[in-house]
Amino acid sequence: MSVDLRPITRANFRDVIRLEVLPEQSTFVASNAVSIAETYLRPEAEPRAVYADDELVGFVLLDPGGRPGEPELVRLMIDHRFQGRGLGRRALEAAVDHAGREYAAQSVRLTFVPSNERARALYLSAGFEETGEVEYGETVMVRKLRS
Ligand SMILES: CC(C)(COP(=O)(O)OP(=O)(O)OC[C@H]1O[C@@H](n2cnc3c(N)ncnc32)[C@H](O)[C@@H]1OP(=O)(O)O)[C@@H](O)C(=O)NCCC(=O)NCCS
To answer: Where do the domains of the chain lie?
Structure first.
């Protein structure tokens, strides 16, 4: 199965903003409509739809970030209907690859709500490490790509 990231367009916009996480996950991630609206304030950010074999399954938001060479994965979500099939992991890898390629990143940064154990397990197993920082109450993790 191939997982890839595609721009938000007129053709997929409505479907992207209809993607949803489980009710108990709603405090972990902003809605996709809010994330896309945020790109009005961060024009350099890149919202992307996650496709698995041409089926829309999720959403990511990447931002070049305030630290040179360290872009931020601002959002990652897989619609509740498609969770638990390895797609979150594949989308994360696709986002990290994109960051390495498009921003010549040395590392990738992200934050998550500390009670989000599923996200923590995913990020740890994908090579992210806690920096010890807390930003707006969220745990900060970084993955080094090259030294
Ligand atoms: C976090 C999220 C992106 C993971 O996507 P997913 O497609 O469900 O995850 P995957 O199937 O790729 O599994 C990745 C890892 O997550 C963890 N995981 C998956 N399902 C889990 C579950 N039911 N309980 C605990 N951990 C789980 C495991 O570590 C798993 O790795 P492994 O099974 O390969 O060992 C998805 O659950 C999601 O969108 N959650 C709500 C939004 C959110 O929390 N986003 C992250 C904000 S920082």
So the answer is: 3-105
Please name every residue paired with 110 in a beta bridge, in sequence order, or none if there are none.
Answer: 141
Residue 30 Cβ inside 6 Å of ligand 1? The answer reads no
Q: Count CA atoms within 13 Å of residue 54 on its CB side.
A: 0
**35 band by pLDDT with thresholds 50, 70 and 90:** very high
Phi, psi (rounded to 5 degrees) for 137: 80, 0
Band of residue 68 on the pLDDT scale cut at 50, 70, 90: confident
Q: How would CATH label the architecture of 3-105?
A: 3-Layer(aba) Sandwich (3.40)
pTM over 0.90: yes
Distance from Cα 44 to the centre of ligand 1, integer Å: 27
- Cα of 123 vs centre of ligand 1, distance in Å, is 9
Average pLDDT, the chain: 96
How many C-beta neighbours within 10 Å does residue 112 have?
A: 21
Ligand 1, atom 2, lies closest to the CA of 88
